């Protein structure tokens, strides 16, 4: 499959085209971020976010530009946003006016009420997860309830790691939509 054709098919929500684009450009975007962040986990997270955002906005892609350049630009902007967020949180912590304040550290151990609320929230979350398609339920279960690594999930599902990462990201997005719906 050629890139131009894959982009056209991806605009029609063709999963094979998304997979082709992901496989074709993963190393380029990941390598770019690895040089910027010098951290494998951050580079991987930003790369996953890049493909997620690109695939969500694939209809806005203008074929006057090179697809790889478009992906790298998205990736660069995600990284810049993360750096800005991180800097602003550090600055707000540093700018506390009075260093002589005595801090009262609250007891953060859960109360019996907290435990009941947590159990109710977990039950609701499990009901909402069951609203997802089975393959999304499975990947969420493996990652968050069985706490398997991406590599282990990849082996268990017999799918490439990149597919697992994207599937998990899509599952989280769909679950977030379910959770934020009124009367969900």
From TrEMBL:
Presence of keyword Phosphoprotein: no
Record keyword Cytoplasm present: no
RNA polymerase sigma-70 region domain residues: 22-87
UniProt domain RNA polymerase sigma factor 70 region 4 type: residue ranges: 126-175
Protein's GO biological process: DNA-templated transcription initiation
SUPFAM superfamilies, per the entry: Sigma2 domain of RNA polymerase sigma factors (SSF88946), Sigma3 and sigma4 domains of RNA polymerase sigma factors (SSF88659)
Pfam families xref list: Sigma70_r2, Sigma70_r4_2
Record's protein name: RNA polymerase sigma-70 factor, ECF subfamily
Species this chain originates from: Winogradskyella jejuensis
